[in-house]
Amino acid sequence: MAGADHHHRASELLQLVHDVVGVDKSGAAGVFRKECTDLVRRIALLTHLFEEIRDFKGREFLNASTSSGSSEPWVSDLVTALLAAKRLLVNSSCAAPVLAEEARKKISFHFQCATWKLEKALGGVPYDQFKISEEVEEQVALVRSQLRRAIERYGSLVTRKMSFHGLPQSLVESGKWVHVVEDNSTSKMTDSLPKSFSADDLVHKLQRMSNFRVAESPSLCLKNGTHVDGDEDMNKKPDATVIPADFICPISLELMRDPVIVATGQTYERSYIQRWIDCGNTTCPKTQQKLQNLTLTPNYVLRSLVAQWCIDNNIEQPTGLTNGKLKKSDGSFRDISGDIATIRALVSKLASRSIEKRRAAASEIRSLSKRSTDNRILIAEAGAIPVLVNLLTVDDGLTQENAVTSILNLSIYENNKGLIMLAGAVPSIVQVLRSGSMEARENAAATIFSLSLADENKIIIGASGAIQALVELLQNGSTRGKKDAATALFNLCIYQGNKGRAIRAGIITALLKMLTDSSNCMVDEALTIMSVLANHQEAKVTIVKAGTIPVLIDLLRTGLPRNKENASAILLALCKRETENLACLSRLGAVIPLTELTKSGTERAKRKASSLLEHLRKLQHV
Description:
There is one protein chain. The chain is mainly alpha-helical. The strands form three sheets. A three-stranded antiparallel beta sheet has the order 1-2-3. Strand 7 and strand 8 form a beta hairpin. Helix 13 crosses helix 14 and helix 21 runs antiparallel to helix 22.
């Protein structure tokens, strides 16, 4: 009966995944739309894992205890985690668009808990037992990596020491809110937490540790009116910092960096209220009153108070921006209020109805964003990114070119990558990659590379159609365009799920052409990409069918040291457990150049060549 249970429990997990996806299709409400979408997208990626477990024909899904009706712990953990996620999504989708402060905090905490439970449950799956494919296992590893990053964003159970950049994470349950200041021993504490925990568990555990301070928010208390009890000595310590409620954005629940006032008089963080408006909302999130206009007025008084509070509490702003002054490396300040005014004026011109004004503003933004990190920060904080994304689809080619290049320049600053993805830029960048001018296509490819440096973006970009467009640029672009496309494709293909997309887009044909090009200008790039693809089964078949093995053997004889190293690595990947390919190597006389490589090649080349020669010797004795 264990086999029947095997199929039943795997099917149950699959059904839960489908249920979660179904909840998301009903629509998530309010400020938790992004959190809901992110959680559903990550859970949906687990479908292939549960399908492979369901279809496994070897060892049983459950151990001997199954006969008594109890499943393995990891199965129960996964079911519990998925059910928790489903309940959370249902509650979030049914909630009012604008929630009371306490309700928002509670839901934020539950997102943290659900994400943590799912990541831990995935860590308990016996992947080797079910012979999970390398592609699926890598996909799960990527999902777990995304979940861990999400946990850090929600607070990671123990938040970073409070700074302007990593603020403020809260742990909320039953009206309790604690801020935790960490040191190097935080990992020991989080590793020992049980799989099911509450804020109380965490508070009590933290209070037993002398090097943690648990601070209570004065504005929050339990339903019976009593506050969270803590060690009085701890609460007296100066670094048990509590952020004043007026400094926290009602949408993000984080300290405001760029507070702006809407028509109802409420203040919000600029990027979050701008996102709210960009989604088509015309009401004030906090009061639900209709906004008479969509003007965002900077709240200079509050910004000044926040800046002074940061200084008083030794909380440094990552931009070094204080009251219109930028902190330099020597600790002095430079007045940039004029720069800020100029940049905001340019951003407003980006949305002008005049083609000439838009074009001129985009050109100036492009120039400014190229000059310095400070400018990249100020331009993003002025709200330029969503407007630039809109300009990617205009008919004016010069404006489009300047816009995509500006986005490329802005993406160099790490924090801006998330804002660009949040603005939904990828589909428009892909459109430029397909149909823009050659310079625009080159810079679109470079932008794809820059954004794909974040692991979670590799999936989104891979599913957007970017790979097909990059392969076309690799085949038909300018020399610089080909190099930009090659760099982006290499980075995207690090993620296993994108390798099949690249193969189906015809990348092997393009790479082989580069390997046999008499100019030899892109042999390095072609070999590097092929070495990443060669461990993918579909890629192996395609590489061999394209007649690549003779070309690689020739490179073993005549290529540069790095070319020989990559060629030997690709050949080894192609010949593992493939006797026909090994026999082909033997027939084409690969033994001599491989033997030479074991003597004069790089250390990696020597290892690969020695391994290939060992495989060839074994083949002769068969």
